[in-house]
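Postdoc handover notes: sequence design on the structure in folder B. Input tokens:
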């Protein structure tokens, strides 16, 4: 009798385990595996995000450098044009001063004859 009672208790415990605890532990195992997968995916996403931020910052720096170079070139171009026109104006004034040297109302007829 004792043996049958022990066997029945074991069978009931086994039945309870199979009915309740097995599915509970299976669900816990799935959740744990899902958490591990989520951690791996999250770490990959964060690594990609970090790399993307680094590349974006590098592109920003390169763009700033390119804009600075373009600005410097444009500034030098403007300076060169101003210097050119100042020199041209000075040269033109010198030519005009030499050309019209001694010109006044009294000798304009004699200068006109030279032409």
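Designed sequence:
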């Amino acid at each position: 009798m004792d043996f049958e009672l022990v066997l029945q208790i074991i069978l009931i415990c086994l039945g309870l385990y199979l009915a309740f605890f097995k599915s509970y532990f299976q669900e816990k195992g799935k959740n744990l595996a899902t958490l591990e997968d989520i951690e791996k995916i999250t770490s990959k996403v964060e690594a990609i995000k970090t790399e993307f931020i680094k590349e974006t910052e590098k592109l920003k720096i390169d763009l700033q450098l390119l804009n600075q170079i373009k600005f410097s070139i444009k500034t030098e171009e403007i300076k060169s044009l101003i210097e050119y026109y100042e020199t041209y104006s000075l040269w033109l004034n010198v030519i005009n001063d030499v050309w019209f040297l001694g010109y006044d109302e009294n000798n304009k007829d004699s200068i006109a004859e030279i032409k």
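Context for whoever picks this up: The chain has two helices and no strands. Don't rerun without checking with the PI first.
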